[in-house]
Amino acid sequence: MGNQPEILLHAVSPFGNLEAIVEADGRTIYLYLDGGPQFGTRAVWVRNLVQGPLTFNQEDLQRGQAPVLPRIHTMRPGPGPLPDPEKLGVVWFAEGNGVALYEGEELLAVIPPWSGMSGFHGYAAECIAENEVCWPLPQEPDLQLRLEFSRRYWQDWADGSPFRKWQPQLLARYEERFGKLKTYFNINGEEFPPRGLGVFESSDQLTLATVGMSLCLQPLVEMAVESPRQHRRVELLIRLALDADDQTVQAVAGRMSSLAGFPWREWAWLGDNHTCPWLPQLGLPYVGLFAIKAEHQHLFCELPEIDEDPIQALGLVPLTERTFQVLNSNRVRVADLAK
Asked: Would strands 196-201 and 234-241 be described as parallel, antiparallel, or unpaired?
């Protein structure tokens, strides 16, 4: 095989914006996770195919070449076997921003969502000591349980049944609260995941609400809050005047559609007290995203749980520029969504 890299596995994430690549170069095997400029490239050692050196080869590191792991860091000091590409497969984390590599049922390596932080790259089954390119698999069961949950999560999505089951329930709940469904938009096109947006009409207002956003777990919530299950599932709501014209409704619906895909497009998350630019041409220069409080009861809507996770109904509340600046100086700001 020489030193010419060989791709043993290439897989694309369910959201279509990350690629997992397993590469062997005759010396070693690495798992890579690439997401372009926004996500970057992450890598973790999987196995040596040659005798491990005593220390890292500094020339390899300087050239940017995947280093062979020193023998003191691996349970297999000598050369390991090349995996059978037909038996390699991946399990994506449910949030879509991490991946685990398997050979059959054997876990080989993991690039979790927290890869790239504080010098950490990922976990490898054959690693026995923390080092610059991998850490040992954790002894605690949390990671394994997370991967088992993720496997079941994507198996449920295999036939699209979560959305088919959830959509009518959510539409019915919205109609109970906000009035008759006037218009429904399919806002995902033909891409995964399926999502919709409904326009509901009551005697005094129009309410626009996302449908199905909560079926996907927002990424990186666990890095920001102590109880991620309270915040990782959301739907978005906004109130418009009853006489809002079609152009306004269409513009707001388009902006909400963009927001509905934002967490998995930009690897961020939407939550209470977040703010973002909005639609200045319609007199809405900014909005705040708020879990419904007393002053915004017109948007209150209690939603059923999904897998024992509560769903936060986030109201999009127009803000003056001054209010936006005050909030933005003290709270988390969502990235510019003008893209």
From this structure: unpaired
